[in-house]
Amino acid sequence: DAGITQSPRHKVTETGTPVTLRCHQTENHRYMYWYRQDPGHGLRLIHYSYGVKDTDKGEVSDGYSVSRSKTEDFLLTLESATSSQTSVYFCAISDARTDSGANVLTFGAGSRLTVL
Amino acid sequence: TQLLEQSPQFLSIQEGENLTVYCNSSSVFSSLQWYRQEPGEGPVLLVTVVTGGEVKKLKRLTFQFGDARKDSSLHITAAQPGDTGLYLCAVRIQGAQKLVFGQGTRLTINP
Q1: Shortest CA distance from A34: residue in chain B
Q2: Rounded CA gap, B10 and B53, in Å?
Q3: N or C: which end of chain B has fewer CB within 10 A?
Q4: Comparing C-alpha atoms, which of B91, B108, B89 is closest to residue B35?
Q5: What is the pLDDT of residues A91-116, one digit of tens each?
Q6: What part of B 3-42 touches A (C-beta under 8 Å)?
């Protein structure tokens, strides 16, 4: 299995507090992604990175920021958590090198965040 | 509006039955992927389809990409309890290395 770990796996916090989720990979993949998963919505992209210090917004980026200071780590920060950010957050990685041109993702196990 | 519409959203059937789930769009894609997600885990890639009309088989699972590359189906023959999970289709956004997912079909196979 690809080496991708998320931490923490579970977190309960209060509205208005900052939260940082960490994604660590040992595969040296160029691309890293943060998705959130909510019932009825599948997976929605928050932010992604295409290299060290290179990031871009996804479809639900409001209220989130990211940083990637080295290849192996991609951090997702909620500056001031809100109840609407209660969700399961998944990190994914890709090297985007497939014969078909498809971008195959390998996912972490998820981080469950509850904002009270 | 969802780029990818999956149907049905929920499906519960008995072991041994056959089923088909769908992933539809009005857009054309160069490829489409199917993932399966089990409780407490991240999604895992099942298959990538690339060519219009392409059929791929993975044991009892048959995946088809529509001729116009706008839709796909997943057919399971003789479903087993181990097939239970959330099935997600996904496509790559043109010109970007990011995937958009459908909302998923939650499949339950009852013994």
Answers
A1: B98
A2: 26
A3: N
A4: B89
A5: 999 986 665 566 789 999 999 999 99
A6: 6, 9, 30-31, 33, 40-42
